[in-house]
Amino acid sequence: MEASAALSRIGLAGLAVMGQNLALNIAEKGFPISVYNRTTSKVDETVDRARQEGGLPLFGQYNPRDFVLSLERPRSVIILVKAGAPVDQTIAALSEHMESGDCIIDGGNEWYENTERRITEVSDKGILYLGMGVSGGEEGARNGPSLMPGGSYQAYLNVEDILMKVAAQVEDGPCVTYIGEGGSGNFVKMVHNGIEYGDMQLISEAYDVLKHVGGLSNSELSEIFSEWNRGELESFLIEITADIFKVRDEAGDGDLVDKILDKTGMKGTGKWTVQQAAELSVAAPTIAASLDCRYLSGLKGERENAANVLKDAGLHVEVGPVKGGVDKKRLIDDVRQALYASKICSYAQGMNLLRAKSNEKAWNLNFGELARIWKGGCIIRAVFLDRIKKAYQRNPNLASLIVDPEFAKEMVQRQAAWRRVVGLAISAGISTPGMCASLAYFDTYRRARLPANLVQAQRDLFGAHTYERIDRPGSFHTEWTKLARKSGAGVGALN
User: Fold this and answer.
1) CB 119 within 8 A of CB 93
2) Where residue 379 falls among pLDDT bands split at 50, 70, 90?
3) Catalytically annotated residues
4) How many angstroms separate the CA atoms of 296 and 308, rounded?
5) Which superkingdom heads the taxonomic lineage of this protein's source (predicted)?
6) Which pTM was predicted?
7) Residue 490's pLDDT is what?
């Protein structure tokens, strides 16, 4: 379409895959939109797509000034460029032409502190700012993503009508809500991605156990995952996993999944999640295990070498079906239960991390609402999130999902199967770090007394760090070595 004399309702700068799809989604919902990209061919491409996809009200602009001036006041501009310096450069180019009351919305996977810095920087000009997590990949961007906007509440109100229409729609509303102040939208999206890392790792472990312990074929795996997707595990990741096992290799024989190199890429949000968990003293072992697995997967050459060296050294734990065979039907059901219980732990860790940050920053996050907006559009969308939403509605101050009465019951019902799967995997020489981390988390969290008393005694002995007692108040320090020697001498005297 030609540039219109009428002003556009909103603008979008940055027309890579996500930007193009989100712009077309906005236009399709009936909001005239101006688009801009430094590489002009991307503008032409997007305008062309808008024409082909039904003459959508999308207008190309070829420089920052024309782009900004083509928007209705107060102007709202979404930017979807690579996180970091490119965002700062785009803000500088656009804000030159913007005025007080206008708003910039960064839809990238940005580090939350960068968003907080930018909120302050643009406020000198009276410009409002939102850092908005966008989940769902290109499919979500085009047809309905999960949106997590945080920052200026006024900026949110200016575009709320657009976001409500553009977001994925579930039975209890659009998958968008105002998250909170500052960089809360980016932080929530980061933790969403951390939970996603955990989910993907746990699913890959379920696959590994079924394939190598159960000896299941890809077509059987596809059927199992399809069946799981009709029950409590129903989710986007389970659904796409069932599809992956169906795809034949077009470049040769067999199935494509078996030809893929076992090295996982990553963009950094999972690493940020684990770093934040450490900074806030929140245990997130399942998410950390999934990150460690991505690092180890990258050591392909070293792993191949280790396999040979340890074989030569006499290691005979062959990864494969357990001697004497297994009851396939029982194994499949056990793995389903282990996967579900492990997932509860992973989501509990993510929610606890969000709570710790919310308390630190006074963001006042609404966890039930976060679970609700993740029910559609995003990568971790799952039926199970409705249960999480209800758990937080029952008790907004829930210490952990594990102690929600409904989830507690489910964990108890599934723990025997969970332990069988982990035990079987260990004896078969198959690593299940995500499931093991989840189980260890559960077993540590549910114990009223841990061996931490011994660690405190050690710390007091070598560093005089003191300890507390269970039977009286106060801090105590003991001359452990002196007393041990004395009692040692006493024992000697008795013999």
Assistant:
1) no
2) confident
3) 189, 196
4) 17
5) Eukaryota
6) 0.91
7) 57
